[in-house]
Write the structure tokens for this entry.
Amino acid sequence: EAGVTQFPSHSVIEKGQTVTLRCDPISGHDNLYWYRRVMGKEIKFLLHFVKESKQDESGMPNNRFLAERTGGTYSTLKVQPAELEDSGVYFCASSQDNGRDEAFFGQGTRLTVV
Amino acid sequence: AQRVTQPEKLLSVFKGAPVELKCNYSYSGSPELFWYVQYSRQRLQLLLRHISRESIKGFTADLNKGETSFHLKKPFAQEEDSAMYYCALSPSGGYQKVTFGTGTKLQVIP
């Protein structure tokens, strides 16, 4: 069974540009989570989808970040416009039905804003 | 607000020596605690959770509510244990909105 897949694995963009990160969860997993780790800091929760609905987006840092999960399958996280402080590793995770099942992580997308 | 503290950024031990990775948390309710591990070039993966009371790869962790700690221990370190270890907390008793610590890099010296 394929695990959680994230695209791209690395992205280098200039300040002010737009970047879209994609996450393909494990098939059948209704719960999808986004996290990020900025340099030297802890991995922080961004938001949680249940199917296509945002269950909790309290961790989204500001309105430059937009997450979608149309159709309840893959999810995208768009940063527009990107700022230097957005650099870090963005992780996606998914779990089955009720959120009490183990969440499996993707390999992460390393975003560098220059 | 919940917080997880891992005081050591790097812990170096010799192979065969005991390992203890420290984790303290702050949360007013009854959280669920986890340890995650990330081996070199691999994904972050769940190592163990306190409610399962399992020993995984020889590691154990006991939740001490009085000291608000969840230290990870292994009696004899192996080279393959070298990795980043993250302590994490969930307020809801599941995997939603997990709060992670900053991580401790464990280096096992042959």
Notes: Chain A touches chain B through 30 residues (CB under 8 Å). The radius of gyration of chain A is 13 Å. The mean pLDDT of chain A is 93.
